[in-house]
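Below is a filled-in request sheet from our internal design queue. Each sheet records the structural input a requester submitted and the sequence that came back. We keep these sheets so that new team members can see what a complete request looks like end to end.

REQUESTER: design group, bay 2
PRIORITY: normal
MODE: inverse folding
CHAIN LENGTH: 502
BACKBONE (tokenized):
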């Protein structure tokens, strides 16, 4: 029965890939769905990319074990900052400016905004390097679940997931991704409510109030508002909530939405989606100690918090619920993987090849995108087969990319006085803080989230400081970026020189 339902699910994804292949003939169609994605589909695409197997398997288990019910602050941060404010603040100006600059990717946007082709090259290389371990962490989390719920060999599960992702992504591009996101989002919402019901009413928990009292009996700090370690908790809230503001695969959703009228509806839908899904991940994780008598499950004799959620699903829930949760996590992960792979491929095909080699046709770029999708999927699988830790992989990649891109992207949208030197200072400071401190602390999973926060926050101060002491862009360039009407107001305040007539 399990494999029959799983087979139907796969057939639906295959069908979407074939259908979408008819509408992905050029670069814009393959990578952004011709900027014609409606509000509901855009909202579900954002949410399903945000929440993957990394959240349900790696983060939910380990974070819930360490912080107890205070991990619900992450739900608040993800829903309000990572989703609602992201759409409210970023969506409209991002779509307007990327259309004006004819930019399809984050590196293309930075290059056009700051009139610096090297920003496109460096940005593409960062995406190329750090999206792959992020993808690997998603595969890893997904395979843990397959191994424990379906008793499918770890490597076999990886390869099957990789082939499925490659098929519908290579055929249908971003349109296929968003259509599957919508279906997968519905599966996720239904699965979450069933999951929460059975978790709360399971024997180890014994109901909501009883479960909270049992958790308090283990350690009262696990039910306190700030938890055992509020500084580390705050780092995780900031990392997972502010990080999406600078992650290329999340920002891509703003590029592709159909029109400005769709943004309001997408904001509401994606926020509700985030509340439901994040609660369904972090609340059960907070109860993990009740299922294992306060002892972390072992893998090969060693404690492994990545196994907390898969073993709860396998040992304490009815088989059909385990199947539904598997589909839930599969849905979340397939969407995240497709978005990561698509953005990684664009870094090479669009930013490096099309951006530096003249005369390359659209057909060649689309073909190259498809080939690179397969390559990145294969590379992610290879890394995932190596012994590693989900939380470390995800946090390092997330913190480095968000740290490098957040400040140049954010100031580039809203502050005309941002300079080329300021953008470079923000990008490089975020990158070196994340990588330098992570390796200084030997990739210690307990400090990497804090390092990621520093990598995002410090450049927000670096960019304006450097910009204020370096030459501003001309009004002619800023008119191209922001529009002539807005720049006239800037010129009137004396912030830039008036050369619009030159």
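RETURNED SEQUENCE:
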């Amino acid at each position: 029965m399990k494999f029959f339902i799983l087979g139907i699910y796969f057939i639906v994804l295959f069908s979407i890939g074939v259908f979408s292949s008819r509408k992905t003939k050029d670069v814009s169609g393959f990578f952004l769905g011709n900027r014609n994605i409606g509000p509901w589909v855009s909202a579900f695409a954002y949410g399903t990319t945000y929440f993957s197997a990394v959240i349900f398997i790696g983060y939910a288990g380990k974070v819930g074990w360490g912080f107890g019910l205070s991990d619900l602050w992450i739900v608040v941060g993800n829903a309000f900052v990572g989703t609602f404010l992201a759409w409210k603040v970023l969506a409209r100006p991002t779509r307007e400016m990327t259309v004006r600059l004819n930019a399809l990717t984050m590196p293309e946007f930075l290059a056009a905004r700051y009139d610096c082709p090297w920003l496109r090259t460096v940005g593409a290389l960062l995406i190329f390097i750090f999206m792959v371990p992020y993808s690997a962490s998603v595969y890893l989390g997904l395979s843990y679940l397959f191994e424990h719920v379906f008793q499918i060999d770890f490597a076999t599960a990886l390869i099957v997931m990789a082939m499925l992702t490659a098929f519908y992504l290579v055929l249908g591009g971003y349109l296929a991704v968003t259509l599957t996101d919508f279906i997968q989002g519905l599966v996720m919402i239904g699965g979450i409510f069933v999951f929460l019901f059975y978790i709360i009413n399971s024997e180890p928990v014994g109901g909501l109030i009883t479960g909270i009292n049992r958790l308090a009996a283990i350690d009262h700090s696990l039910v306190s508002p700030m938890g055992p370690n509020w500084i580390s908790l705050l780092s995780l809230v900031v990392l997972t909530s502010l990080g999406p503001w600078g992650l290329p695969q999340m920002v891509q959703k703003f590029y592709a939405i159909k029109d400005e009228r769709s943004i309001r509806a997408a904001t509401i839908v994606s926020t509700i989606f985030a509340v439901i899904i994040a609660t369904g991940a972090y609340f059960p994780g907070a109860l993990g100690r009740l299922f294992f008598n306060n002892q972390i499950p072992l893998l090969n004799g060693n404690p492994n918090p990545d196994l907390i959620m898969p073993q709860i699903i396998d040992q304490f829930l009815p088989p059909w619920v385990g199947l539904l949760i598997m589909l839930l996590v599969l849905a979340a992960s397939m969407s995240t993987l497709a978005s990561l792979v698509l953005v990684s491929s664009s870094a090479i095909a669009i930013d490096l090849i099309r951006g530096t080699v003249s005369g390359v046709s659209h057909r060649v770029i689309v073909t190259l995108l498809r080939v690179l999708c397969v390559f990145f999927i294969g590379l992610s699988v290879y890394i995932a087969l190596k012994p590693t830790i989900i939380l470390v992989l995800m946090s390092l990649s997330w913190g480095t990319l968000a740290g490098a891109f957040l400040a140049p992207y954010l100031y580039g949208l809203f502050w005309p006085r941002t300079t080329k030197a300021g953008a470079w200072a923000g990008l490089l400071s975020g990158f070196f803080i994340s990588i330098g401190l992570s390796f200084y602390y030997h990739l210690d999973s307990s400090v990497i989230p804090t390092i990621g926060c520093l990598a995002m926050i410090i450049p927000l101060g670096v960019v304006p400081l450097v910009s204020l002491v370096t030459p501003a862009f001309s009004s002619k360039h800023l008119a191209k970026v922001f529009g002539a009407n807005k720049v006239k107001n800037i010129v009137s305040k004396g912030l830039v020189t008036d050369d619009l007539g030159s």
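SHEET NOTES:
- The longest helix spans residues 154-200.
- The first strand starts at residue 298 and ends at 299.
FILED BY: M.R.
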